[in-house]
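MODEL INPUT / OUTPUT PAIR
PAIR INDEX: 1
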Amino acid sequence: MRVDTLSYTHTMTSDLSAVFKAVMAEQLSYFQRQDASVLSLEEGTSITCHLLTKTQKIGVENTMTILKLEENRCIQMKTTSATGDIIQTYDFKEKGGNTLVTYSEKNMFEQSRNQFGFMLVGLLYKFFYNRGIKQRMTYLDSLADTRFN
């Protein structure tokens, strides 16, 4: 794995189509909280929001854009700020009657000092990242099971 990419794979018991719908519903809800005029998600859908940076916890304005949307296969977004870009990807696969979801974030920093800062805190951040993503994946599996199965 690259130093600038964080990745987590989770096995879900819910059907792949239901998991995909759950992730889409959550992403749509997030986009709508930022911009009520967003009615659906498609490639090119974009919002502006304020998020905290990973290393310095400073609030910065960001633009989130749906880059790729392949039903039951992939959702990819790009978050752009003055400090750089983050490509967030959900990949969906069926395996042995379960659904495998891999969520990854690829960080591309504008300044090398930001890249260096991320590398310094990377191992500690990865621990909290994995813990947070595991909780999110468990929630999405539950949502898929109760709302979309």
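PAIR INDEX: 2
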Amino acid sequence: MTKNLKVILFYFVLLTLFLLLSWVSVPVSAAEKSMKNISNVWIFVPKLGQTAKFEQAFIAHVAYRKLMKDPRSWSVYQADMGTNMDAYIVRSCCDTWSDLDDYRQWNSQAKASEDWRENVSKYISHYEHHRAENDLNNSHWPADVTYKYIGVNTYT
């Protein structure tokens, strides 16, 4: 093997090792694992002309989840002004990372996703799912919102 080939091979191995190590997860402390700061937000946009059917199916799905003892509390919002006023925002907060695993298990046993797919999803034209790790020391989402209007700001 020539000297140049050895140098190239060395840097290739070094780069490969660096890339592999960069994909390894950083350990999370016990305090971070137990912090209830994870929120889940779903955004659903009904198909054009299907809003009433979506709402009826959505209400029935919520009743199904209650019957199956859904461990999460969900809040549903709709924009009152601005763009995307046809969207339904469904939010749950606050979970730990291990709560997410427990919830996945509940969802599988309760067949909640199957109920959604069979009864509600046919009325949806678009949906999004967002999960956020909230900074609870600097962000305050009221536990019991009694206001008629809530302002939400997005910074990009």
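PAIR 2 NOTE: The helical segments are 3-22, 30-34, 51-67, 97-110, 112-119.
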